[in-house]
Amino acid sequence: MNKDQVAGRVDQAKGKLKEAAGKDGGSEKLQSEGAVEQAGGKVQSTYGDAKEKAKDAIKRGADKL
Question: Model's pTM, two decimal places?
Fold first, then answer.
């Protein structure tokens, strides 16, 4: 697991909490911020996943040499 995967998943969790707090408190602004934070976290974690897959593929290719 790399730093992008971890940070992305943390941002997703924080975004979910913000969104829930916004819904409970009636704050559309907080709810929107949470949704945006979740989306950004998903992008970052997906990027981290892709980096990890590429690293693994390179390693497997090097092992064949």
Answer: 0.85
Q: Which residues have CB under 8 Å from 30's CB, separation 6+?
A: 18, 19, 21, 22
Q: Distance of CA 28 to CAs 3, 25, 35, 39, 44, Å?
A: 31, 9, 10, 17, 24
Tokens representing 30 are 């907080």
- Given a cut of 80, whether residue 64 has pLDDT beyond it is no
DSSP-assigned states of every residue in the chain: --HHHHHHHHHHHHHHHHHHHHHHHT-HHHHHHHHHHHHHHHHHHHHHHHHHHHHHHHHHHHHH-
Report yes or no: 5 and 52 within 8 Å, Cβ to Cβ. Answer: yes
Q: Do 11 and 37 form a contact (C-beta atoms < 8 A)?
A: yes
